[in-house]
Amino acid sequence: MAGRGTPATALLDKQRVAHTLHSYEHDPRHESYGLEAAEALGLVPGRVFKTLVAEVDGKLAVGVVPVTVQLDLKALAAALKGKKAKMAVVADAERATGYVAGGISPLGQKKRLPVVIDSSASEFETVFCSAGRRGLEVEITPADLVRLTNAVVAPISA
């Protein structure tokens, strides 16, 4: 995308939500998009959250967890009152969200998916998550992230 605009940043601007964008040079050789963001921006990794798309009872859903942990699929399913969860096929996740893997944001998704944000987000005044492309993070309050994504907050990290 030209410039810094993404559907996520457009949503934040439209809703007049206070946020700060942080960009860095993405290294395609880095093994973890989230840890790369934390390192590049000099952040405590637990404050940087990754957006993972899963299938809960056959329907796509989103789990937002710190980059230092794994998504607990059973906990995600339970938070959404489902029975079974598994990670989504990358192509399905990209098609539904409108973002590429490594740049999927919980904000401004093409198809609004159910979102669960790990309860650890509430430990911070602000958190970081993808702003919709690799190398671009948005800093936002956990309350605004929950409100804009209509998220459930639950302990979903393993």
Automatic annotation (TrEMBL):
<protein>
    <recommendedName>
        <fullName>Cys-tRNA(Pro)/Cys-tRNA(Cys) deacylase</fullName>
        <ecNumber>4.2.-.-</ecNumber>
    </recommendedName>
</protein>
<dbReference type="InterPro" id="IPR004369">
    <property type="entry name" value="Prolyl-tRNA_editing_YbaK/EbsC"/>
</dbReference>
<dbReference type="InterPro" id="IPR007214">
    <property type="entry name" value="YbaK/aa-tRNA-synth-assoc-dom"/>
</dbReference>
<comment type="similarity">
    <text>Belongs to the prolyl-tRNA editing family. YbaK/EbsC subfamily.</text>
</comment>
<feature type="domain" description="YbaK/aminoacyl-tRNA synthetase-associated">
    <location>
        <begin position="36"/>
        <end position="148"/>
    </location>
</feature>
<dbReference type="InterPro" id="IPR036754">
    <property type="entry name" value="YbaK/aa-tRNA-synt-asso_dom_sf"/>
</dbReference>
<dbReference type="Pfam" id="PF04073">
    <property type="entry name" value="tRNA_edit"/>
</dbReference>
<keyword id="KW-0648">Protein biosynthesis</keyword>
<keyword id="KW-0456">Lyase</keyword>
